Amino acid sequence: MGWLKDPSGDNHPKVGFTYRIMRRFSRSLMSVWFRELDIVDNENIPPEGGLMFIAWHPSGLIDPMLMHASLPGRLSILAKHTLFKIPVLGKLIRSSGALPIERAKDSSDKEQSRKNNQKLLAKVGNEIASGGRLLLFPEGATHTGSSVKRARSGAARIMLQAIRTSKELGTPIPRIIPVGLHYSNSQKFRERAAVILERPMELPDIPEDQEMDKQWIEQVTESIDSELNRASHSKTSWEERHLIWKARSVVYAERIKQTGGKMKKPSYSESVIGARRMRAGWEFVSKEEPDKTESLVTKSIEHFDEIESLGLSPFDVAAKPKKPSFLGYFKAISIWIWSAAWMLGLVTWSAVIGNVPPYQGNYAVMWYLKKGKISAPIQGTMKVMSAIIMFPIWWITVSLLMTWLLLSPSSPVFLLLNMHWLLAKLTMLSPVLVFLIFLVWWPISGKMHLKLYSKLVQSWRMLKRWQRWRDKTLDWNLLQQRQQKIGSELISLGNSLVLPGDAEWVEPKTGNDDNLSVRYRN
Known about the structure:
The protein is an alpha/beta fold. The protein contains 16 helices and nine strands.
């Protein structure tokens, strides 16, 4: 995946050296945290004018770090002021473009807090009017809900200030861009993520009479609320979201079968877009033909529950060949052995030395925090924070130790190396050079190990899949026929509708959900 390029030209604030360093850090961390990361629809970013990126906030510190890594240009990020008081983290987020905002519940002097925030919002509004970019989470707090929490009015207030100032300065009118954040599981290591950039919101004309500001702010806040729900595929429960996701998988697999294509898993961004189509069509048909969808929902839930109890996924059922050959099984074993063999070499031993101790320390911290029953988003935040602290400290420590072992006359390794004239040359290297080489090598070996480990896990899953396919105790014909019937019904429904991504699709007006733009084909 390639990161988006920063905008160029005098109309865009320059991206400073410190910001670039911090963003590179965010990108490195996110590329390690997620095994797959996609940024989609970047053509929706206007070439000129200030921007406000808005998103829901389901995953604590992961959300702003992912956005900081993914979005181009220099971002200002509003964060609660209490974070800036945390050692190390406070300096890191300030260097990353974060600005402190005081929530009333976090402040003892609420009146002073309100005045400070008014000044900050005015400052940020002026910055956006001059071409700056702001990242904002309008919900105001992270959460674990399946739907978006009610948006607060801060985003609309900032945009009103920005548009007014922009008109006074004669600069391009700033825009709001909703961003869909999608995770397979943001709290688990090496999962998948997608950042979907939606089209800019269409805002009503700002009032000439400032007495009408409140009404404009309320209207825009309501639109922001709707846009966040649409961008994040909001549903009333996680069960509904999971059902849509599994139904999307069935439709994808059945379409591949009908067209005679090769059965392979789609990218995560393709899956997210497929889920958007499924959600829009499902909600539309549920209103227009509730009897049809009710019976289909019942059959789908029963089928998904059964295959899940068997340790299978819809893809496992759809992708099963008629006669699983030993060749496919042998291929999966070969890939697994190849990955395992490489992992036993220098890469893995370096990764173990450089990364296992801080990883175990991070694990111990999380074990202790989970005993306190903290929420899932906070767990993800603390996991990242403790990793940011523990890994660099350990890399420095072990680099110093290795440098001493190689170059100190009192070291047993030094004595062994000097027993051979060629190896003895290693003991003559500069201590600073040796230290820097080790300091850089630990994270590099860790990344290489992760790639090998990812290949190992994928081949192991494929191996288990082939083992299940060769299990004759399962009634594969029944499972496949039932899933095929569900898939055919879903495809038939989808073919009768104009859905997101179709050539005839018309994006809903700002503030409207996708299902309001779905229509039957003529």
